[in-house]
Design brief:
This protein is an alpha/beta fold. The protein has helices at 42-49, 92-97, 104-109, 126-137, 156-173, 184-190, and strands at residues 2-9, 19-26, 31-35, 57-62, 65-66, 75-78, 144-148, 176-180, 193-196.
Length: 198
């Protein structure tokens, strides 16, 4: 189980707390939604759960152990803007090979064309690049997948295709999914439960 227990965070000693004493637990194969207005710290919380940031108080554990500080993290985070999450100096093939390379069937299910592998990130559209980011994050070493407004900028057809792949993969491989989104309709449709953070 992925747990965040009694988490608190602020961006400086003179800044207000974004949140305090926040706890969350995510089970293998479970799809949990996190909704709430902007400014509460949902993205910051996602970064803490994935090991990008350290909380001021509280802890994040995976099976009662701290997240690994080196190597591949089994908790992967997908951002709203994929261009900020990839190295612009790497070709798509190099980006996908980072960490645990995704299985060929996953690439096919996400409609990743083989010709993309030799392209640079700026040569792909936002939807195409987000498919690459999802494929990289769903490698065989991933046990938990955090989607922070992952499809908010994409058209409805691309959104549906990506979520179909993510949820199918999560069910088949018992990957826990945390969905951070303002879209109540999306959360009610795909999540086992929704945390309304207000």
């Amino acid at each position: 189980m992925l747990r965040g227990e009694h988490l608190a965070f602020r961006y400086g000693p003179d800044k207000p707390w974004l949140f305090q004493d926040f706890s969350l637990a995510l089970k293998p194969g479970e799809v949990v939604g996190l909704s709430g207005p902007s400014g509460l710290g949902k993205t910051t919380l996602a970064k803490i759960l994935a090991g990008y940031l350290q909380p001021h108080t509280g802890q994040v554990t995976l099976d009662d152990e701290p997240l690994p500080q080196r190597g591949y993290c089994p908790v992967q985070l997908i951002f709203q803007h994929p261009e900020l999450a990839v190295n612009p100096r790497w070709r798509i093939g190099e980006i996908l090979a980072e960490g645990y390379p995704p299985a060929p069937e996953l690439l096919r299910s996400l409609s990743l064309d083989e010709s993309w592998l030799t392209r640079w990130p700026h040569e792909l559209s936002g939807g195409e690049l987000q498919r690459v980011a999802v494929a990289r994050a769903l490698g065989p070493g991933t046990r938990y997948f955090i989607a922070d407004e992952m499809t908010a900028m994409l058209d409805a057809i691309t959104q549906a295709q990506i979520w179909e792949v993510v949820l199918s993969h999560a069910k088949r491989h018992q990957v826990g999914v945390l969905v951070v989104s303002h879209e109540a309709a999306l959360l009610s449709r795909i999540c086992d439960r929704v945390i309304d953070w207000t």
